Amino acid sequence: MASTTSPPPSTDTGDHPRHLLRGFLSPEACKELEFVHRSCGTAGYRPSVVSTSLPHLAATGCGHLLLPFVPIRERLRDAVELFFSCEFDLFIEFTGLISWCKGASIGWHSDDNKPYLRQRAFTAVCYLNDHGKDYKGGILQFQDGYPSSIVPVAGDVVIYTADNRNVHRVDEVTEGERLTLTLWFTRDSAYDEDPKLLRFLSQMSLSCEPASQNYIPVPASDNMYWFAYDESGFDIRCARVHVLGFNFHMNSDEDNTSVLPAEDDPIELLGKQLQLGRGDEVFHKIFSNSLHALQVSFIFCCLHVVQFYYWKAPDLALRREQTAVDAETVCHPIIHPSRGTELRLPCDHVLAETIFGTYNNAGFAFDWNDFTVAAAMWKNYSEELKRKLSTRFAILAVQ
Ligand SMILES: O=C(O)CCC(=O)C(=O)O
Ligand SMILES: [Fe+2]
């Protein structure tokens, strides 16, 4: 007999104005934002949370990574204005990628519930991965109205008023990493995020030379990457690389003694030139950034490449299987045995795996040739975004 249970309504236009937009973001858009976040995120504003704000991207040499957000922000603003009947009325106050890791939760609240948050009028939360598949817990519950709870599905977006008509909470995440893109909208132009972003972008484009290199990330201060958990913790950059099966090595082309850290602060090595290894092998490419006075590293660059590899790896593996490798494009990655160059960093690997999970079951075989191709793809991707950003800047400048 057919079930008579109908799905819960996805809209409340009464006392608790909110709306669930299913499939608002494509799977590809979700993956791209995940790549940005896993490459750039820092310790978040609450315990067990990692976040990537747009000003942070702009300020750390990743202004080009704002571009994937541009059409999404505009579409979201349109959707919010349309649903809440306030066309041409809203500014975006905050845009950020947030991961809620094991132990993260938030109790009953409304999003404008502090004096310094009163400017917030509406919220949009976009889910970038799936409850059940990617993490456990983390269900969004509303105190009144419908839908009364949201089980996150990648691509879905919930929009609601930021006031006390939509008191809500997020259940504790008990396993995995729950990823969202969260935006707040305001009617007060003094809180508009855009002028702030443009200021950061113009400062960065003036300070980053030569132009061909300025898509290379510039790390923020080390303490921003420290993820504290109970009595332990880890540097987010080390943990991300570790859970993907890689490790950091000293630059073997250098006189190694010159890159040894101060005894008491090995994390400083993350600001120096590095290589990436896997098991007993070290990849020849040196990740470094000699342009920055404070020993800026390419560690983020390593992360970008690693994350990019995992983003694109299934495509690469498919391409490898389907096509005979063209003699012109064949890659020759140079791999060295590790010779004890692995960096000894204060990173609790067990904790890192507990918090970020591992990619051991990603369903494809690792291949350094693919990694080399991915590194080139990452560079093209970054350069292309950089070009688009320059064009946009030029258009804005003449407006
Ligand atoms: O991620 C969610 O589902 C809601 C998050 C939330 O309530 C907040 O950030 O204020
Ligand atoms: Fe909230």
Automatic annotation (TrEMBL):
List, alphabetically, the InterPro entries matched.
Answer: Oxoglu/Fe-dep_dioxygenase_dom (IPR005123), P3H (IPR039575), Pro_4_hyd_alph (IPR006620), Pro_4_hyd_alph_FE2OG_OXY (IPR044862)
The biological process GO terms on file are: collagen metabolic process
UniProt cross-references to Gene3D superfamilies, sorted A to Z: q2cbj1_9rhob like domain
User: Which domain of life does this protein belong to?
Assistant: Eukaryota
Residue span, Fe2OG dioxygenase domain: 82-187
Question: Which cofactors are named for this entry?
Answer: Fe cation; L-ascorbate
Return the protein name. Answer: procollagen-proline 3-dioxygenase
Q: Which organism is it from?
A: Eleusine coracana subsp. coracana
Q: What is the lineage of its organism?
A: Eukaryota, Viridiplantae, Streptophyta, Embryophyta, Tracheophyta
